[in-house]
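Record now logged underneath.
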Amino acid sequence: MNDVVIFYGSNIAFQKIIPSTECRNLTDLIMEIDTDSRSFILEIPDKQLPDRKKVKVKNFVIESSEYSGVKEHVILNFANFLGKLDIENLYIQNPPISISSQIEKIYPQTKIVKQEYNTIKKDDLVNLYNSYERKIKGQKKVLDGLIQALYPLTNSNRSKPVVILFYGDTGLGKTETAHAISSVIGEKLFRKQFSMFQNNQFATYLFGGAYYEKSFAKELLERESNVILLDEFDKAYSVFHSAFYQLFDEGIYEDQNYKLELKKSIIICTSNYKSLDDIKNKLGNAIFSRFDSVIKFEDLSISAKVEIATEMFNTKYDSYDSTEQQIIEDYSIKEKLIAACTSCNNAREISHLIDNTFSLILFRNLIKNKDLDNWKSNIY
């Protein structure tokens, strides 16, 4: 075999290193070999049967999504499977430990390639500082705390992640802040919503189950970004916190099928806790002490609500066509609506109030015109 490459990283990055032609995948070859194995051979006495010919493969390319579609015995006896093939080049993405250990044992020349992710630089921090308040309103203290938390990553001698906990009421800009960080770095945010997982599902997801099941480790390997958002981290049962100890301390995560290392990553956990005492009581000191920074999102001031409402009103108004814009203008509601938004608790409520008001106005106009059309049709 000429080249044997084990690649760890996203599918987009993997596609850049594999050949563009003459490629076969795992699913295709398993089906071919299984078909050959089921074929009947007529045995003739005193006649030696010819050895089965190996399937020739110029470029054997295995994407990480394929492991879930094959039987477990193929995974556990991967070396035997490879022995049935005459392979020129092998490219394999994010293999489970059981496969990578077999490959490295039989092919000492194996190359290990890991995706290089963007890391935050001093210029990125300056860009974040200058652009943050245009995107997230009323959180100046958050910005100051964020810069302090992220600055250590600009040190070339640091490799471990920075782990930050955002807390405060919903709709204040926690998720938007994570998006703002990934935007200045130039990568797509990796986001996991922990509230989606139930008790038994979460255990399998975190600690690993069968090869065909989703796992946190596998999804981390496939991520496209070094900015990781664990949304609603407080929804995870405390019994599962131990799964994150080594990740938060050293940037290493391991389950029964995969192992990976996160270098210079930004790990953001969000929660709706209202105070530090609440966090410590609910999460416990073991996990709380592993956060490099804990940043509170304050309730919005009146001026912040007015600023958010004004921007949202203009943006949503611009999304309608000229006829609908004229209908909205005829009601002269902008000032009253923005004033009403100051009674909302967060940006999400402000958005809903403006959307609902516009919808009500436009629908009332629609009904009025329909009634007029019916009246005209009765006359003529």
